[in-house]
Write a structure and sequence with these properties.
The complex is a heterodimer of chains A (about 500) and B (about 250). By secondary structure, chain A is mainly alpha-helical. Chain A has 21 helices and 3 strands. In chain A, a hairpin with a 2-residue loop joins strand 2 and strand 3. Helices cover about 40% and strands about 25% of the residues of chain B. Chain B is globular. Classes of the chains: A mainly alpha (about 500), B alpha/beta (about 250). At the A-B interface, helix 1, helix 16 and helix 17 of A face helix 2 and helix 3 of B.
């Protein structure tokens, strides 16, 4: 009995992996070794990118039933911010104090709560007070940003990537500190007002635990410190970053995108998604709307142009390396793999995808968070009934999903044009990947991405070879989806009920 | 019903009304559970027994009425906050996490680190089978084993009250016997509110009873009084007596 259930659980995995291997062998015989290796590696590059978008989608849908149409935008934002950090971080350093100040202000919620919750106010007065506070916050924030040249800051990386000379020449057109210092202060006060409104003065039904208050106090202190530091290093910071070794700078760019993705994801979930859990349709609409807003904002800041991000030095030197060691020593742009010349940066993308898959699988299998997610995908109510704060888990999972997409974005940036529509294609492919792999399964997402990426690459190759229309490879993804859904309506490894 | 002082009550449900979508499922259910007792909730299929449990726990929050647990009003709170106050839930259909192992199912129920280690002896004494099955996946367990796991899961954290929904459903008589023993045993350490269709099991375990019909509490009292009142049993529970093998 043990063996049969084991077989039932892994049957789709084994069959589809077998199919991939079998078809690959066939393709190998048909195409010859060289073409086969090149096409497979191209396919894996695509698979890795698909996976990075799909991993977040599958977790968020599996656990929270939220279709996140903004996932492609997160991919795009990750690419833009990482590109900015790598090419010229002036923009990021200029905005950091304001963002940090706002978040620091918001942390005041749990601190203000014990002071204000027992105020004697009628429900009408409470509502009025909250509205007034939010209005005041808006005013303060606007005042804080008054005549702040955000677009000018955003343009710095454009200029330096166009002249392609020494970026340090353009590094720091920041406002002098004597004029700048009021801005973070005003934004901090704006955040404080929002926090006060969120603490719901006079509302006795809200409960905030004491441990939460203490944690918020620590966070608040840390963030205020960070705000002050970041205000002081607005000019020296970008220069210091640009003087760093290019590879290290690229690594830091990856980290920046990941962190921004996490922060952005938590804010979006808290602010836009969580008030709408009782209205699932609105959640879809709001993520779609968000995608448009983000797209327009990016166009406003950076103009609707495609930018080419330089590859980090490890992948940039012209010439072909014969071995991996030689590549790592010289930083060659291409590598000889069994007689095939293949760009090293694409190998890095594959590596990034695999690393992410392994890390995510380990989290899912061994951590308490992973256990909660796996359990929650099957039965959310029961997880709640065990006393687990699912709302907090939702925020965390949503943030994880957007962070993965943002990381995928910066990973893809040196490989494709950085432009406002760069995430759209990956969003569609990501959804198809999730449908094929099954909602809520990381392994399923990886398997779906593998199938789609390889199908695209081989489809392209065959279309080129036999003079067929390239639409064939695009159609292949939908054909695979139809076949999978006919055989298994819940996807290859779907666990959702 | 016997007089009970307020501090003897661990749970008091006062005229709750619960809606699911458009449907008015509970139209004023009231009940009280004495500390340390086993209280049984009886009634036909669809009478609202399961919804009552879910309303207490906040999974289907009541729109009207009060729920007082251990001296604190809990209606309107999040389900996870209510559960964390010390209520364990054993849902119907043995809803364990089938994609998790037995060990993970139990580990997930921890509220403090080390809960499971502290309770392991008690749990394995109640259900020795689980020790043997510890590493298996939830989907590989038989129905009875799944039910044991579902109850064991509610015992991991320090719960003052267990809500147990139809533990005998779909189980073989031998296993039901075992389950009854286990519930009797665990009731020495906590209070139990039990929903049970199997009247034989309900009558042998329960001390107090409530009968729910059409979303309302229609009868309540001591179990020994109910056993003498065959007309009442027939009126509200007719079908389930025969199913359960009749009253002694």
């Amino acid at each position: 009995m043990k063996q049969t259930t084991w077989w039932r659980e892994y049957q789709p995995l084994i069959i589809s992996l077998g199919l991939v291997v079998g078809l690959s062998l066939l393709a190998w015989r048909g195409l010859g070794t060289q073409a086969f290796i090149r096409t497979t590696l191209s396919g894996l590059t695509l698979s890795a990118l698909f996976f990075m978008v799909a991993a977040g989608l599958t977790l968020v849908f599996g656990l929270m039933d939220v279709l996140n149409f903004a996932q492609g935008s997160m991919f795009m934002i990750g690419a833009y911010l990482g590109w900015q950090f790598y090419t010229n971080p002036t923009f990021l350093f200029g905005l950091a104090p304001l963002v940090l100040a706002l978040i620091a202000g918001l942390m005041g919620m749990a601190l203000l709560y014990p002071l204000v919750h027992s105020w004697k106010l009628s429900p009408d007065r409470q509502k009025l007070l909250r509205a007034a506070l939010l209005l005041l916050a808006l005013l303060l924030a606007l005042l804080g940003l008054w005549q702040y040249d955000v677009r000018g800051l955003a343009k710095t990386a454009m200029v330096s990537s166009m002249v392609a000379s020494n970026p340090l020449a353009e590094a720091s057109p920041q406002e002098p500190l004597a004029r700048f210092w009021v801005r973070p202060l005003l934004v901090f006060l704006a955040g404080w007002c929002i926090a006060l409104a969120q603490a719901r003065p006079g509302d006795e039904t809200l409960v905030v635990q004491r441990s939460e208050t203490r944690r918020s106090a620590f966070l608040l202190a840390g963030l205020v410190l960070l705000t002050i530091v970041s205000t002081l290093v607005r000019e020296s910071g970008p220069i210091a970053v640009l003087l760093l070794n290019g590879n290290l700078r690229f690594f830091l760019a990856l980290l920046t995108s990941l962190l921004v993705g996490l922060a952005l994801g938590s804010v979006i979930e808290r602010l836009l998604i969580s008030p709408l859990y009782t209205r699932p349709l609105y959640q879809i609409l709001i993520t779609m709307g968000l995608a448009y807003v983000i797209g327009e904002l990016v166009q406003l800041l950076w103009d609707p142009l495609p930018y080419a991000m330089d590859r980090p030095p490890l992948f940039a030197q012209p010439g072909k390396a014969e071995t991996v060691l030689e590549w790592l020593r010289q930083g060659s742009a291409t590598l000889n793999i069994f007689g095939v010349t293949f760009p090293t940066y694409r190998l890095f993308i594959i590596f990034l995808g695999i690393t992410m898959f392994v890390a995510l699988s380990l989290v899912m299998k061994y951590s308490r968070l992973g256990m909660i997610i796996r359990a929650g995908v099957q039965d959310r109510d029961m997880v709640e009934a065990l006393g687990i704060n699912v709302r907090r888990v939702f925020t965390l999972v949503f943030a994880m999903g957007t962070a993965l997409a943002a990381l995928g974005g910066i990973g893809a940036a040196p490989f494709m044009p950085v432009e406002p529509v760069m995430g759209d294609r990956f969003l569609m492919q990501g959804f198809i990947t999730v449908v094929i792999g099954g909602m809520g399964s990381t392994t399923g997402a990886a398997l779906g991405a593998l199938l789609l990426g390889l199908a695209r690459a081989f489809g392209d190759y065959l279309a080129l070879k036999y003079g067929l229309t390239p639409s064939i490879s695009e159609a292949s993804t939908v054909i695979i989806m139809v076949i999978v859904l006919l055989a298994r309506p819940s996807g290859l490894l779907g666990k959702k009920e | 019903m016997a007089e009970s002082l307020p501090h003897d009550l661990i749970l008091s449900v006062e005229a709750i009304h619960t809606y699911i979508g458009q449907f008015h499922i509970l139209e004023g259910v009231s009940l009280q559970v004495r500390r340390g007792s086993i209280t049984v909730l009886l009634g036909r299929n669809g009478a609202g027994k399961t919804t009552t449990l879910k309303s207490i726990l906040g999974l289907t929050p009541p729109r009207l009425g009060r729920v007082v647990f251990d001296g604190v009003e809990i209606q309107g709170k999040h389900a996870y906050d209510i559960a964390a106050m010390g209520i364990g839930y054993v849902p119907e259909h043995r809803a364990i996490f089938r994609h998790l192992t037995v060990a993970e199912n139990l580990r997930l129920a921890e509220r403090k680190k080390g809960d499971l280690e502290r309770k392991a002896d008690f749990i394995f004494r109640l259900f020795p089978d689980l020790k043997r099955l510890y590493k298996l996946g939830g989907a590989q367990l038989s129905g009875g084993q799944q039910q044991m796991l579902a109850i064991a899961r509610a015992l991991v954290a320090d719960n003052k009250l267990l809500l147990i929904d139809e533990p005998s459903e779909g189980l073989a008589p031998v296993i039901i016997e075992q389950m009854m023993e286990a519930i009797r045993e665990l009731s020495t350490t906590t209070t139990v509110l039990l929903v049970e269709q199997n009247f034989l099991m309900a009558s042998r375990l329960g001390q107090d009873y409530y009968i729910i019909d059409d979303g309302k509490t229609v009868h309540q009292g001591r179990m020994e009084d109910l056993l003498r009142n065959e007309a009442l049993i027939h009126q509200y529970l007719g079908a389930s007596i025969r199913q359960g093998g009749g009253v002694a």
